[in-house]
Amino acid sequence: MAACLQPGVSMAAVALAHGINANLLRRWVRDGETKSDVTGQENGSGGTAAQPGPTFVPVTLPPPATPTPEIRIELRRGPMTITVTWPSSAASECGAWIRELLR
Question: Are 15 and 24 in contact (CB under 8 A)?
C-alpha cells in the first residue's frame, strides 16, 4: 500500500485497486488530515497538546446460535431438481408432506 501513497497517484485509482468507494477513501484521508492538524497543535508551553484517544467500549455479544439439524430431500424429475430442507424438530410434518406428495 505504501506505493499507493506516492505523489501523482489518484485517490480513485487507489480506491479501485483496493475495492473501496473513492468517496469513502477521500473522507478517510480528510478525517485523518483533520485529526493530525488538531493533535499537532502546540499548547502554550511550546509542546504539543495531548488529545485524548477514542474510548474503548466493551460490547457483549450473544453466543453463536448452534445450527439445528435439518432434513434434506432432493427430488428429481427429468432435468428438474428440487431440494427441500426441513427442520428435524418437525420431522412428523415432513413425513406428512412426503406422503401427500407421493400420492
Answer: yes
